Task: structure prediction
Amino acid sequence: MTAMLEVRGLEVAYGHIEAVQGIDFDVNAGEIRTLVGANGAGKSTTLLALSGLVRPKAGSIRFEGVELTRLATHQIVERGLVQVAEGRAILTTLSVRENLELGAYRRKDRAAIANDLEHVLALFPRLAERIDGLAGNLSGGEQQMLAIGRALLARPRLLLLDEPSMGLAPIIVQDIFRKLREINAEGLTIFLVEQNVRQALKIASHGYVLESGRIVLDGSGAALLGDPKVLAAYLGG
Ligand SMILES: Nc1ncnc2c1ncn2[C@@H]1O[C@H](COP(=O)(O)OP(=O)(O)OP(=O)(O)O)[C@@H](O)[C@H]1O
Ligand SMILES: [Mg+2]
Result:
């Protein structure tokens, strides 16, 4: 079986800073995979490369058999690789509805958009309650849900998330991760980047540990959770 996403020898540099130093990973259709690591490990840089927002220095990124490294970001999004950016990027002076509609701005299929909006609101009832309120008045957890909902309205085939747990209380993080599981159970493939190693490995079928731009460990979520090296370095063991 070929993976949905195949990354080989990926290198990304900012001037002389080698943020990503030749990494390989796969994401199979239907699963949740995670890339975990500390501050500055190169997690966001990896996601930016997948979305064509930074150009790799070397390596290949194949998504459903198509090489992405030479495509523009909008072409990558059209192929179904949609990212929930770090820090959520909610437009605080627009309503919840307007923010959600932005996710569908490239689409013309009005009826399907309306269906997808209903589906997102069923998934996130808090957003439904506040649909005409300003996005800036939402709590941090609700804003994260809004960012995910907006990405879903772009009809992803592979959803990329950059640290959805950032700045949220543990109980809210669990809420968000439960939703990711639900979305995955409906058939959407997810690639999650996280500093919250425990929660990410709990929901992932497979994980990669990134340190200073290199993958140093990989294995099933359960295996990594039980790995003494992961325990010592990331789980306060
Ligand atoms: N635009 C940039 N210009 C120069 N260096 C950068 C830039 N963005 C990131 N870096 C550097 O690249 C390395 C990887 O950064 P990156 O943001 O990918 O890490 P990260 O794993 O996402 O970290 P965090 O968990 O803090 O979000 C770091 O050394 C960082 O300082
Ligand atoms: Mg980051």
About this structure: Residues 170-185 form the longest helix (16 residues). The chain has a mean pLDDT of 95. The chain has one domain: 5-93+156-234. The pocket of magnesium ion (ligand 2) is lined by residues 43-44, 86, 162-163 (CB under 6 Å).
